[in-house]
Amino acid sequence: MSSSRVLFVGESFTNIGLNLKGFSVYTTGGYEEGGKPLIDALGDAGFEVDYIRNHEVTSRFPAEPEALAAYDAVILSDVGADTFLLHPDTLFKSRIRPNPLASIASYVAGGGGFLMVGGYMSFSGIAGSACYPNTVIADILPVTMMTGDDRIERPEGVRPEPVAEHPALEPVDGRWPTFLGYQRLVARREGEVLLKAGGDPFLVVGRHGKGRTAAFASDCSPHWGTPEFVGWQGYGPFWGRLVGWLAGRS
């Protein structure tokens, strides 16, 4: 099987902590990435993965659809729409620039694959701050996004269940692992629901123009994606099959 190229964007964050000890106050900082399990799984499935971290989007993301054509699939995971739309040249200098999200839509219409993975900065996001319903991404996804905060937090755990047969869902032994939450989405009429959780769509696939699209409503890694999910024997095969379908392998 020949290698396919995937562009994976997101799954990184910097944190700042405020510490109070009596009259003394000091700050701490750190940096973390959550995409390694999925990146490793795709590598094991034969994909060549280019990884763009959240803070690298403005400098590294290929804004023109012609540049995206080098990839068989594009994955966005936990990276808000403003990260693409508010380039410093636009935000601070009022300069006109290409719209990277419109480039993704054109890329998919021309035959590319596209996947959005859930998280606090995916779909509508926490407090609605991911903002994708207001973008052209809303036109290409096989789901309709909620307005406002779309999170369904399930600290007691929830297990998705297959509801359809599809190349992305070859039979696996046992049940799907537990998740700690997901995002409430509504499948479009032309979308195909493959997994449900709590009565809500959990994985939906569809087509846009000549391309294929998918929406996975939960995390690919903690916190919603539990260690049980990341360590599941079906983790790698599932992502490999899903992205393989998006890339036209099946």
From TrEMBL:
Transmembrane segments: none annotated. InterPro entries: Class_I_gatase-like, GATase1-like. It comes from Marinimicrococcus flavescens. This is Glutamine amidotransferase. The keyword Cell inner membrane does not apply. The keyword Cell cycle does not apply. Keywords: Glutamine amidotransferase. It comes from the Bacteria. Residues 5-247 form the Putative glutamine amidotransferase domain.
